[in-house]
Automatic annotation (TrEMBL):
Matching PANTHER family: ARAC-FAMILY TRANSCRIPTIONAL REGULATOR, HTH-TYPE TRANSCRIPTIONAL REGULATOR EXSA
Pfam family, one: HTH_18
Record protein name field: HTH araC/xylS-type domain-containing protein
Entry keyword set: DNA-binding, Membrane, Transcription, Transcription regulation, Transmembrane, Transmembrane helix
Length: 556
């Protein structure tokens, strides 16, 4: 019932668009044009929104008039492209392509429909839907042996994984794509894709702090880019080289490379490249204690950034500037940047649906808000200071000190009393425990201890559905006996005992198995018996003092 309702609502919206198309009259000059002529005009006038709209409507109207399904799909594809700024409209055209061609086999269709739908869902931060659409598009492209779209879709899937924080999975996909491009004997035809993939692999290695592998692919990107014009990603590869040099602590080399890239970028370069070069120039200068130069670049980052283009990757520029203004007691600028960062973070967190337990920030949003509020009060107080306020502050200080000492001693007495009571309770518990332990026969105890040793060596603890009742049953004993023996001999409860075994196994596997280290944290958690990536990460941190991704990075 729900599916039917959704389908009917979608169908109605497309009929509405169809009526709009039919109501628009094709200009006489286009009446007798072929599909190829209309397509060529569409491609030649992409910068003119009015003309491309006219050509796409003329194309679609001609296809509908001739009941040519393939050309109708091409018409919808044109409309997808020109309405991409209006995601809700564009996705309707993408759905139209899918509905029209999903049960047919055309070259490029329904691949293009799924591909566009994936792009739109990604733009809407609907990452799960985006991945579903990309995978359907990839399956369709592989059935058609459509190399161009296979490469594009694998690239998009890798970008999506990077967005979700799965950099190792993204790297696997990029490397797989590189292998596919090489085996297709299409390096000339797909040269832009080849250079792009090299560049993305080098960027991902940098993100993973794998500087040696990153450097190899950066050099490959630069060499391939310079071999033939146009020089795809040359400037961006120079930026990557600068970042890689910074990570290797070769700060002057980083500055040289980033400065060269900055000069080549020019005034019309895309925001992402320029802001990245400024960010790392700032960091490199800070590392060499050239603070005044660093702040110039961090201020450029701030001046270029708006809510629409902010990303967490440039957060360091803001936190460093906030610290700087705090240090020189420039409260106005400190407050201005705090308010801006709080706003940016709130929108970023809203858009970013995933939970990443490995993100640790120097300035979390709650702390920023607290500091901002304190700063506002401080600024207000500075403007309103009087002798009366000074006197009042003195009185309040004396009162607070008196109150503090009163509660301090009162709390200390309570703690002493609680400590005394706790010690009494522990003595009682030990007596009770000792008495209870004697209830289990020595033979039974030894038998269960032997079975625990076999259990640990068999790696049966990796079963994620394991419970105390199941283990007790397999040991041919009861849960009460098993729990008491684990508590007594392992000095921990059953849940902690199980978690410790799994974490110890994970640590050993990470250290010895390189392929295992490339898994996403979610996959590692599942493989070692955890049902939740968060519980795995928390248990790992308690055991090692590091989160899994940090532990893996140090090994790599």
């Amino acid at each position: 019932m729900t599916t039917s309702h959704t389908y009917n609502r979608h169908y109605a919206s497309i009929k509405l668009k169809d009526n709009l198309i039919q109501s628009k009259k094709t200009p006489d000059s286009l009446q007798n044009k072929t599909y190829k002529e209309l397509e060529n005009r569409f491609n030649a006038n992409r910068s003119d929104s009015l003309l491309v709209t006219t050509y796409s409507y003329a194309y679609l109207r001609k296809a509908k008039k001739e009941s040519n399904t393939f050309e109708i799909a091409n018409g919808y594809h044109m409309l997808c492209q020109i309405t991409i700024g209006d995601l809700d409209t564009s996705v309707k055209y993408a759905d139209s392509i899918i509905d029209l061609t999903k049960n047919k086999r055309y070259k490029k269709y329904p691949t293009r429909g799924y591909l566009f739908k994936g792009l739109i869902c990604f733009s809407k931060h609907q990452y799960s839907k985006a991945l579903d659409s990309y995978l359907l598009a990839l399956r369709s492209a592989e059935l058609d042996d459509d190399a161009e779209n296979i490469i594009a879709l694998k690239h998009n899937i890798a970008l999506l994984r990077h967005t979700l924080g799965e950099d190792r999975k993204a790297l696997e996909t990029y490397l797989d794509n590189l292998k596919f491009i090489k085996t297709q004997d299409t390096l000339v035809k797909f040269r832009p894709h080849y250079v792009t993939t090299l560049f993305k692999i080098s960027s991902t290695f940098n993100d993973l702090k794998n500087v040696d592998s990153g450097l190899i692919y950066i050099k490959k990107t630069i060499k391939t880019s310079l071999a033939k014009k146009p020089q795809y990603y040359y400037k961006e590869a120079l930026i990557n080289y600068g970042i890689n040099s910074y990570l290797r602590k070769d700060y002057q080399s980083a500055i040289d490379s980033l400065t060269k890239a900055e000069k080549l970028l020019g005034p019309n370069s895309i925001y992402a490249s320029k802001v990245k070069s400024y960010l790392w120039l700032g960091k490199s200068n800070m590392a060499l204690n050239r603070e005044s130069k660093a702040f110039v670049y961090f201020k450029k980052v701030d001046s270029m950034t708006e809510m629409s283009n902010y990303s967490a990757s440039i957060r360091d520029a803001y936190t460093t500037l906030i610290d700087h203004y705090k240090k020189i007691d420039d409260k106005d600028n400190q407050l201005r940047l705090m308010q801006k960062l709080i706003q940016y973070d709130s929108v970023t967190n809203k858009n970013n649906k995933r939970l990443n337990v490995d993100i640790v920030r120097n300035y979390d949003t709650a702390q920023l808000i607290k500091e901002k509020d304190l700063l506002i009060k401080d600024v207000q107080n500075q403007n309103q200071k009087t002798k009366y306020n000074s006197f009042l502050i003195g009185v309040l200080s004396i009162f607070m000190i008196t109150l503090f000492y009163y509660f301090f001693y009162k709390r200390k007495r309570l703690q002493d009393q609680k400590g005394f009571n706790k010690r009494l309770e522990n003595i009682k518990n030990k007596k009770i425990k000792k008495g209870k332990e004697l209830e289990i026969d020595t033979k039974v105890t030894n038998n269960i201890i032997q079975k625990l040793e076999k259990f640990e060596n068999s790696e049966a603890f990796l079963d994620s559905n394991l419970t105390m009742a199941k283990v007790a049953k397999s040991f041919k004993t009861n849960s009460t006996y098993l729990s008491k023996i684990i508590n007594t001999h392992k000095k921990k409860n059953f849940a902690k005992y199980l978690n410790d075994l799994r974490i110890e196994y994970a640590i050993k596997k990470i250290k010895t198995d390189r392929k295992f280290r490339l898994y996403a944290i979610k996959s590692i958690a599942k493989d070692v018996g955890f049902n939740s990536v968060q519980s795995f990460s928390n248990a790992f941190y308690k055991k090692t003092g590091k989160y899994p991704s940090e532990f893996i990075r140090k090994i790599d």
